[in-house]
Amino acid sequence: MSTLTVLTLVPNAGDRLRRCLESARWADDLFCVVDTRANDGSKEVAEEFTPHVVVHEYENAAAQRNWALPQIATEWTLVLDADEWISDALRDRIKQIIQDPNSVDGYWIKRNSYFFGKLIKHCGWHRDYNLRLFRTKKGTYLEKRVHSRVVVEGSEGRIHEVMFHDTYRNFEEYFTTFQRFTTWGAEDLFEKGKRATWLDLVLRPLGRFFKMYILRAGFLDGYHGAVLCGLGAFSVFIKYAKLWDRQRR
């Protein structure tokens, strides 16, 4: 019988972590890797659900997961962020997949996300699939600081049953992550040899807003959609502004 570990990175996860782990407690193992900077009781919450809790210094999500994966003994791994949770339908689908000998090696899972408390149904977020379920020995994360993904040695499929994602609830949460991700994104671009031009600083942010708000119907999400699309464009501008500053120095 095939077995499954749910791998979760634990920052200061607040009240989100309990919902995450509650939705995954049916798995054979829960492996929680706690950021050394976590100080809000999230480690103690994780220990309520599993003895498999370790503290490890955080560099970035990809490095943290690549450190954890060789320690997982089950055939399958499901990666679940602390602000995500599994629907009942997805749970049942995953159980079916891991017991099927004809299953492929990795699966992209549909994710529905909340922004400032509202479920976003447009802006491109409605097309959000993430490769999260895979045979443990066949998955490795790309060495990127931000928005890395697992690369699977083998065939891939899709799961349309959803996981949910409780993203930013307020501007304080958003800009805390925003600063880190835009800096990392700029560093990744710089190391690849990319240099910022005025087209990157002017047209890329406008293009992001047009794509999210018009082409992907963000206007149908009301004020939440307008704010989300505006922040998306601003994050592109700041990432390339930081790249420009990096090359200037």
Helix content: 40-55%
Tell me which CATH architecture of the largest domain applies here.
Answer: Alpha-Beta Complex
Q: Please identify the top-level CATH class of the largest domain.
A: Alpha Beta
Give the full name of the CATH homologous superfamily of the largest domain. Answer: Spore Coat Polysaccharide Biosynthesis Protein SpsA, Chain A
Structural classification: alpha/beta
CATH topology of the largest domain: Spore Coat Polysaccharide Biosynthesis Protein SpsA, Chain A
Low confidence ranges: none
Distance between the termini: 56 Å
Largest sheet: 9 strands, mixed
Q: How many domains, as an integer?
A: 2
* Form type: globular
Descriptive account of the structure:
Strands 1, 2, 3, 4, 5, 6, 7, 8 and 11 form a nine-stranded mixed sheet that branches. Strands 9-10 form a two-stranded antiparallel ribbon. It has two domains: 4-166, Spore Coat Polysaccharide Biosynthesis Protein SpsA, Chain A (Alpha-Beta Complex), CATH 3.90.550; 171-248, no CATH class. It contains seven helices and eleven strands. It has helices at 16-24, 42-49, 61-68, 88-98, 171-191, 198-215, 222-248; strands at 4-10, 29-35, 53-56, 76-79, 84-86, 106-115, 118-119, 129-135, 139-141, 150-152, 156-166. With 249 residues, it is α/β, with parallel strands linked by helices.
Walk me through the topology.
Elements: E1 4-10, H1 16-24, E2 29-35, H2 42-49, E3 53-56, H3 61-68, E4 76-79, E5 84-86, H4 88-98, E6 106-115, E7 118-119, E8 129-135, E9 139-141, E10 150-152, E11 156-166, H5 171-191, H6 198-215, H7 222-248
Parallel strand pairs: 1-2, 1-4, 2-3, 6-11
Antiparallel strand pairs: 4-8, 5-11, 6-7, 6-8, 9-10
